[in-house]
From TrEMBL:
GO BP: protein processing
GO molecular function, one term: aspartic-type endopeptidase activity
Signal peptide: none
Cited InterPro entries: Pept_HybD-like_dom_sf, Peptidase_A31
Cytoplasm listed as a keyword: no
Record's protein name: Hydrogenase maturation protease
Keywords from the named record: Aspartyl protease, Hydrolase, Protease
Amino acid sequence: MMQKLSITEACQYLKKLLSMNYSLACVGTYLRSDDAVCLELCDRLQSMGAHPNIVKCEFGLENCIDVLLLHKFDGVLICDAVISSSLEPGSIVKLGLEDIDENILILSSHSIPLTHAVNILSEVAGVKNIELLGIVACDLSIGMQLSEATRNTIDKLCECLKG
């Protein structure tokens, strides 16, 4: 079930999962403005050096399944930009696979459907827990700049995760 999270709630959720044998798999592309929001999150978290379980999946989850298989994670939190007609840009949402419908759309240019990549993780890799975290995008035009709304969300999230 979709749940909107505050910055504090999202920060606590990320801290909890990253303290366990979970990977944060960040999906997106740097070429479509806000579609890079979760890649930027991973870049910044990796530069902080405190979270070794961060995996960047540029252009789709399927592009990093091999890394996720290698590490034998108990769980994977897939973090991606989303489109929502009912939420403000920069909002953070916790999702289940059942939430991906006409109101929430995962953006990344997956070459295989997200549900297939998730099935590979669970059935082939034996990943027990797969969760989704989305950041609502504002600007999807060709470009390499995040919108103010998504940049502010990442700034606040990273500040919280430092502590």
